[in-house]
Specification:
single chain, alpha/beta, TIM Barrel, five-stranded antiparallel beta sheet, 13 helices, 34% helix, globular, disordered N terminus, binds 2-acetamido-2-deoxy-beta-D-glucopyranose, Chitinase_II/V-like_cat, carbohydrate metabolism
Length: 480
């Protein structure tokens, strides 16, 4: 009995030690797991979704053919640019991205950035505001194209940062984003936060925005069309992301988690060089620059690591994103540098003083239709794939896309089987059909009719009238 008691006591000690050990191990492992999430960008209480909501549609790879898209800014209709929605060559496009609605830093709500341009500006008979004009063109067009509402942009970047700190504001952002999209007749949302920062909760908040918006879109689709199973073939609202085209900002995003919600990654393959750069360089080159001009043997050849092709490969190879979800961004503007220090015909990787610019308010920017600069000749670097010109008087160098680069980029998109291409921004293109970037690109890539607008469907129009009777664009549907 005495012996037995001893054994039991020993057992007890053994179990106490095991429990204490288990407790210690758990204490070590749990925070470690948690830390791992924080390192990936999560903050306390915010966990990235590990499983997709069963109700949430996995984005499809989209229709056959290639997207041909352009951004249209709501400052285009003013003065010097004087580019109205009716001037957008929609018969050659699959998407018009309407830029920008902005984030209100105080409330998180999405709102118009210029209510005069968006809603008031008198355009065609009886139509006020660029939005209604654009949606009217879409409804009346025989050729299908989508209109997408863009949220944010470079000048709105601080607001995204601010609302990211509040779950309530992020929720408000998501609700109002989906509401504005549908209320104003758009077929989707393009998120443009430039850019979430590393070592913060911003990348994970961006992911949450995408998930929330996708859920909001799916819910709206269920309300309009009934359960997804019954109406598999109805068109879906589109979610795209204006995506940084360089590793530093791209690799901090939880790309594979985001890809559960994102239909198209709009890679911003431009602004590779600009007024912020130490030396001159192209800004929308397809391949790495510095391979041409070798014969000058300059020791100042710029060896920039930025190119469109590098960005595309990052997405496909490192992040395992299907090429069919990637759209290649192209520029309807050039970026220039003045007083370039060069003695020969090598203009890359050179010191410069000032950037000049033929487009007011935007240092260093020339719209494509202002190029080449008067008195200079357009030249082409077929290795990097960029047009450029050099004005000897002001010693100004400008790199840009032209008809020739459109042809090569079009072939690239077909060969790589990308989703398509887009331009920032519509007002920069040439009115001369022989010089038009959209023309040259379309000729190479063809025109897909698959990018159907939801607002061509009677069900959608009826639901809209029910939800927003007598709202800004309702009159477009009442007439039909
Ligand atoms: C350019 O940079 C890459 C990567 O940093 C390097 O491998 C290569 O040798 C450099 N080329 C020149 C010409 O400096
Ligand atoms: C890459 O994506 C495909 C499908 O999108 C998937 O089947 C595959 O497992 C992924 N590969 C890796 C390494 O994640």
């Amino acid at each position: 009995m005495f012996e037995g008691f001893k054994i039991t006591k020993l057992h007890l000690k053994f179990w106490i030690i095991i429990i204490v050990l288990a407790f210690i191990v758990e204490m070590c492992i749990v925070p470690w797991l948690f830390l791992d999430k924080i390192k990936k960008g999560g903050s306390a209480g915010r966990r990235p979704p590990t499983e997709i909501d069963p109700d949430t549609r996995v984005p499809s790879e989209g229709p056959d053919g290639f997207s041909v898209a352009t951004y249209y800014s709501n400052w285009s209709p003013y003065n010097a640019r004087n580019h109205k929605p009716a001037d957008i060559p929609t018969s050659q496009l699959t998407h018009v991205y309407y830029a920008f609605f902005v984030v209100d830093a105080k409330s998180g709500a999405v709102k118009s950035s210029d209510s005069w341009s968006d809603f008031e500006l008198p355009l065609s008979v009886g139509v006020k505001g660029c939005i209604k004009e654009l949606q009217k063109i879409k409804l009346e067009s025989k050729h299908e194209f989508k209109t997408i509402l863009c949220l944010g942009g470079w000048s709105n970047r601080e607001a995204y940062k601010k609302i990211a700190k509040s779950e309530k504001k992020v929720k408000k952002f998501i609700e109002t984003a989906v509401d504005c999209m549908f209320r104003y007749g758009f077929d989707g949302i393009d998120l443009d936060w430039e850019f979430p920062e590393e070592d913060s909760n911003e990348p994970i908040v961006y992911l949450e925005m995408m998930r929330g918006i996708r859920e909001g879109m799916d819910q709206l689709e269920r309300q309009i069309f009934g359960s997804p199973a019954e109406e598999k073939d109805h068109p879906h609202f589109q979610l795209s992301v204006a995506t940084p085209a360089f590793a530093e900002k791209l690799n901090i995003l939880p790309i594979s988690e985001m890809s559960k919600y994102v239909d198209i990654w709009n890679m911003m393959c431009y602004d590779f060089h600009g007024e912020w750069s130490d030396v001159t360089g192209y800004h929308s080159n397809l391949y790495l620059q510095g391979h041409s001009h070798r014969r000058s043997l300059s020791n100042r050849i710029s060896n920039s690591s930025l190119s469109s092709d590098t960005a595309v490969k990052l997405m496909t190879d490192r992040h395992n994103i299907s090429s069919r979800r990637i759209a290649l961004g192209m520029a309807a503007y050039g970026r220039g540098f003045t007083n370039v220090e060069t003695n020969d015909d090598n203009y890359l990787g050179k010191k410069y003083h000032g950037v000049g610019g033929g487009s007011e308010g935007e240092p260093g920017i020339w719209l494509y239709n202002q190029l080449p600069i008067d008195g200079s000749k357009e030249q082409f670097d077929s290795n990097a794939v960029s047009a450029y010109c050099f004005d000897p008087k002001s010693r100004t160098f400008v790199g840009y896309d032209n008809v020739q680069s459109m042809d090569i980029k079009g072939k690239y998109i077909k060969k790589k089987n990308l989703n398509g291409g887009f331009w920032w921004e519509s007002c920069g293109d040439s009115k001369d059909p022989r010089k038009s970037l959209v023309n040259a690109f379309s000729k190479e890539i063809g025109l897909s009719e698959g990018f159907v607008s939801l607002f061509k469907s009677d069900k959608v129009k009826q639901f809209h009238l029910q939800k927003y009777p007598k709202d800004y664009i309702s009159s477009l549907f009442q007439k039909l």
